[in-house]
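Exam review. A common question shows you a sequence with its structure tokens and asks you to describe the fold in words. Practice with the pair below. Do the first one on your own.
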Amino acid sequence: MNQSLRAPTLVVGTTDTHAARDPLGVPRLFFAIVVLVGASWAHAASAPGPDDPASQRLYWTELGSGTVRCALLDGTGVQTLHVGLPSPQGIGVDPIEGKLYWADPIMQRIERSNLDGSAREVVVEIDGFPVGLDVDPVGRSVYWCDPLSGALGRYDLDLGQTAVLASGLASPQDVRVERGVGGDVGEDGAQLYWLIPTEGIYRGGVGASDVELLTPGFVGQALSFAFVPDRGRVFWVSFQRLRSVGVFGGCEDASGELVGASDGIVFDEASGRLYWIDPDGQRLVCAGPEGESVVEVLGGLALPRRLAIGPAGAAPTIRSQSEAMVVDAGQSVTLGVDAAGTGPLSYVWRQDGVELSGKPGVTGATTPTLTLEGVGRERVGVYECEVGGPFGSVVSAAIVVAVRAELADSNFSGVVNDQDFFDFVNAFFLGGGADPG
């Protein structure tokens, strides 16, 4: 990690509370010898990036085998992540949290797991028949559509609340959330798109408000669609043609050749290619954005239903962390970070750039929670935690810890003598400090 250091700085101030006064009513001084660190607080480790084909996967559901599976974009490295599912349908990836979501209409619920298939859990029970599904990692929500009740729904992952955004629609089959691409966007920059085969593709706010019809007519047998941000277009397959519509209108055929049917379709930004499910051929195929160079990616599937694309795992991110604090001398201090990402995750705590593992009075130096016992002058400084994983690493923002001291015992020796005065003056004028012990 690249860091630039500044000279130690003495922070001095008086407290205002009665509790901060000694029995004679003399205010305490608090001071801290703080090494201010100017740092690049996040960096990537040596790992495949999100645009590296080696890190990208196709994820799909198979109704015939009751499975969720994945493979590399060239069709190799096939893995079965989940088995024994009654009716796996819509599927989506959260690349930030490293989670895979899928809908099961027979079980009337949405489930998720890590991208490697571990830590499977039920996210929400749905009073309906969820088929299409999409994940909004930024908005921390999952959207689905129910063709039987004609509903669009949303589940807030933070609040744990379910909302029906629209009802009585004519069998919606797929739903997508996109941010900041054409048209009027909501306050959070997000737009909701959904597909009704007999009518077309609609767009509205994330609450399904201000609805407009993008396509001039029905979209045939299409059950899914893909959004291509850099082209500002939505693609789908109907009547064996790859078709598209701009987010500002303008429907057109993108393919002059037959490309087969399509249940699920996705776009890979790195390669600029579209991938989709050909249910007639029980296979995955791909082509360029104009429908050119159609090739089979993987065959021999068992009723493949929906398709998603995403990384093999997620780099760590820090969702929350401790803030700067001023504490009394001798007090124990606990610092912590809450990190997400594909594991296993490792933790390294540092004080002023020095690793704390094995230091006296320090526990948890390689865990999410660091504890400093009986802090004194040697524990004043800037703390950070580096979180690492298979797909990268991230460093927390600086956490400054300062320690109050009685004016008399200014060097925290436990003894009041003349040396306290000289140490205080030396620290004030010379910026002297102690190295982490």
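Now try the second one, then compare your answer with the model answer below.
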Amino acid sequence: MEYPAAGEKSLLFCLFSDQRQTSAPLGRGCISPYIIWNARAIGPHRGRVTGEILGSTARPDGPDAAASADDTRPGGQRGLDAVQRGLDAQQLSALEQAFRTWVAAARRQTDRLSRQRLLLIFLLLRATGARLGEVLALDPGRDLDLTPLGGPDGSPTGGQGRRPVARFRSGGTVREVPLPADVAGELRAALADPQLTDSLEDGLARLFAMDQGHVRRKFYERAIEAGLPRELASPSALRRSLARSLVRQDVPLPVVQRLLGQSSADLTAAFCDYSADEAGRIVEDYLKREERRKTSARNRFTGQITRVTPGPVVSQIELTSLGGFKVVSVVTQESVERLGIAPGVLATADIKAPWVQVSAGAEEPRSSAANRYPAVVRRVLASPVDPVAAEVVAELSDGTRLAAVVTAESARRLRLTNGAPVWVSFGAFSVILNFG
């Protein structure tokens, strides 16, 4: 086997003589050359080094008070800066590929199963931002709810299916973290593998019970194989990477805090410190997104998914916009599961102008279109250069503007002028839903 036993304990000694001494059990394999290096090289910071060996941090009141032991390993300022920056999407992909190549290269079954367990640990750390100790303590039967969004067999469940979750337990509290569909699927496949189950003495309950020192060493090796600084494969770097990614995607800081299980938003904010160059790029990206949003905001509803009505092939999705309008769309059932479409998910609904129909008058017309709204014409753009088509822009009561392309003859016949009451409509199959 490639991993040491995780259950055996040895007596921890007092590393330093100070005003107070510290003792606790250590897992076998935890006393590494790194500890000796720290003890020799960081005399003035011996309290922090002791905390790192005990699995805590500089402040004794919680695991988030400072960076983990990985941040100060030999490698100088470059390694520390790398951990503070975290990994970008390309680096995460390279690291994952290094793990998968390593698993596939195993010659013995015992090695393959051990490496597969380490791959699963990596996927959980990357997807949840959990601490390494939290992942290693997971009991799959108790702490992993891997039921697909559609139900146990993937069939529809009335649109009320919930996303797979991992439950992390600490201090009598339970923190639920949603799992991406691909990670949940890989975990389901692993738990259904009889070879993996039979290889564990205590069954699946100890699937993730591996020695922390061994896990870290294997992670560092994969980083080197991927051409990355080894510090970037540390659990704390993966945790920081997820936090920074979520904040960059405009996830509110308190939500990120709860996801990571941190005691305050200030600790979460410390994960998201940026250099001057990074801050400049972030602001530039934001301004570009705003410019695109303002120039293409027509024919767009932003809101929350409020209902999912599944079918054998396609599902009907209802979005309620910020202005209170209901927008109905139809997507494939496969897209519902892949995108995690469920009530409460934020989304935008886009409709192309040629798909929008305009009916003159204040009275609602008889129509088979699923989406129909009263509006007022704000602009009619007809060009003598193009005698065939005209653009009509109508405004809903909440200020949302819908542009429609109609024939110039239709615009004249319906007497579409500024201020005229109209109804705008479009079919459910004409709506494009966007997430993230």
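Model answer, second protein: The chain has two domains: 1-137+208-295, 297-436. The chain has 16 helices and 15 strands. Full marks require stating both points clearly.
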